[in-house]
Write a structure and sequence with these properties.
Residues 67-201 form the L,D-TPase catalytic domain. InterPro entries: LD-transpeptidase (IPR050979), LD_TPept_cat_dom (IPR005490), Transpep_catalytic_dom (IPR038063). Belongs to the YkuD family. Keywords: Cell shape, Cell wall biogenesis/degradation, Peptidoglycan synthesis, Transferase. GO terms for molecular function: peptidoglycan L,D-transpeptidase activity; transferase activity. Helices cover 17% and strands 29% of the residues. The radius of gyration is 23 Å and the shape is elongated. It has one domain (67-236): L,D-transpeptidase catalytic domain-like. 30% of the residues are buried. The strands form two sheets. Strands 1, 2, 3, 4, 5, 6, 10, 11, 12 and 13 form a ten-stranded mixed sheet that branches. The protein is built from five helices and 13 strands. It is of the alpha+beta class.
């Protein structure tokens, strides 16, 4: 490695060289203790210290007739508005390439606190659990039954597409559904009703305002939940993330 402009091989570094070294050391030390996400972009930095899973709060009382939901695919954000004003917003995870989340104007057509997928899940036989895509290959044999992947707080806006609880990545990751992190899924579930309009597009005007302030999450480094957990009722009894 070549010497710096203020150093020569075989000689002690100059005063400027030592100052540079001290400055770098202090920066790295601060990164290590104060900003865990500086060295890596793991979950701690993205979750922050506030403990909030969403921007705003769930309003009390009946759901107003002028409530609408907007989704920005580019910003991976969900906005709930009353009369054009955002009252709640959260980060979401959208469909990956080949499984894009549909765009357009829809309405909530179904709500289920406990929903299981009919397309992705597990073949179960006693203590044996095998991941599967339902309908592909059929049952492994006698004694096996299908258990769909859990999708707590399901809010459907198009057959086979909906909002639900799940791990939220910084990159598009889903098969077209819109995942919400932890308790945000339950909050969103209480904010909408069958008939609530849902507008999904590449971007939304709110991206430049509230969209800059919503809590962000990166669950990509979280270990996958155990199969035993996913096939049990426990998957519906507590938030998956903090």
């Amino acid at each position: 490695m070549s010497a710096s402009p203020n150093e020569t091989n075989g000689n002690a570094p100059s005063r400027e060289g030592w100052q540079r070294r001290v400055g770098i050391a202090l920066f790295l030390l601060g990164c290590f203790f104060a900003l865990p996400g500086c060295a890596n972009h793991g979950n701690t930095a993205n979750r922050g210290s506030s403990g909030q899973v969403a921007w705003g709060a769930v309003p009390e009382g009946a759901i107003p007739s002028n409530r609408v939901v907007k989704v920005s695919l580019q910003n991976q954000a969900v906005y709930v508005l009353d009369g054009g004003q955002v009252v709640w917003a959260a980060s979401t995870n959208v469909g990956k390439a080949g499984h894009e989340t549909p765009t357009g104007s829809f309405r909530v057509n179904q709500k289920l606190e406990r929903k299981r997928s009919g397309s992705y899940g597990f073949w179960v036989n006693g203590d044996r659990v095998v991941p599967t895509e339902s309908g592909r290959g059929g049952s492994p044999g006698s004694g096996w039954h299908y258990v769909g992947y859990p999708m707590p707080y399901w809010v459907e806006f198009l057959p086979g597409y909906g909002f639900h609880e799940g791990f939220v990545w910084l990159q598009p990751r889903t098969h077209g559904c819109l995942r919400l992190h932890g308790a945000a899924a339950g909050q969103f579930y209480r904010l909408v009703q069958v008939g609530t309009p849902v507008h999904i597009s590449r971007s939304q005007p709110e991206d430049e305002t509230v969209g800059r302030s919503i809590p962000r999450f990166d669950d990509s480094r979280e270990p996958d939940p155990a199969n035993g957990f996913l096939i049990s009722d426990e998957a519906f009894l507590r938030p998956w993330g903090s």
